[in-house]
Design a protein that fits this description.
By secondary structure, the protein is of the alpha/beta class. The chain contains five helices and six strands, in the order βαβαββαβαβα.
């Protein structure tokens, strides 16, 4: 299974989460690719069985969370795959709040898989959700 992981990171925490997913998916037996949104190859999206899109949570600490402007602008340029092929991930300081809602609005659909991490680590719960999504 070919999985494309694309992320936007400001401080490195979202990149860390993307790298953890890359390692986990490699151990799972998938063939992941990893790239920042600034360096991604659109051809890899065409051949991907699944796509994971991530960004850091911007906004106030307790409310008004939203994706970074660069991510929102970039998401409009990518070819959209079938909704079941897309998963979202985000990192945050205190709360992720409305982050997934805003990411979904930018995509114009709500992906089933939504992973979040405060510290960039892939929790056991996130691993279970990711595995279940891959096995569908």
């Amino acid at each position: 299974m070919k999985i494309c992981i694309l992320y936007n990171s400001r401080t490195g925490v979202t990149k860390k989460m993307a790298e953890e997913m890359f390692r986990y998916l490699s151990e799972y037996g998938a063939s992941p690719t990893l790239s920042s949104i600034q360096q991604y190859d659109p051809e890899k999206l065409k051949n991907a069985d699944r796509i994971l899109l991530g960004t850091w949570t911007n906004g106030l600490f307790l409310f008004a969370q939203h994706p970074d402007r660069k991510w929102k602008k970039w998401i409009k340029t990518i070819p959209v795959a079938e909704p079941e092929k897309i998963g979202l991930f985000t990192t945050y300081k205190l709360l992720s709040g409305t982050q997934f809602k805003k990411m979904s609005q930018a995509l114009q659909f709500t992906p089933e898989l939504q992973l979040k991490s405060r510290n960039g680590k892939l929790s056991p719960e996130n691993k279970n959700l990711l595995t279940a999504w891959l096995e569908k």
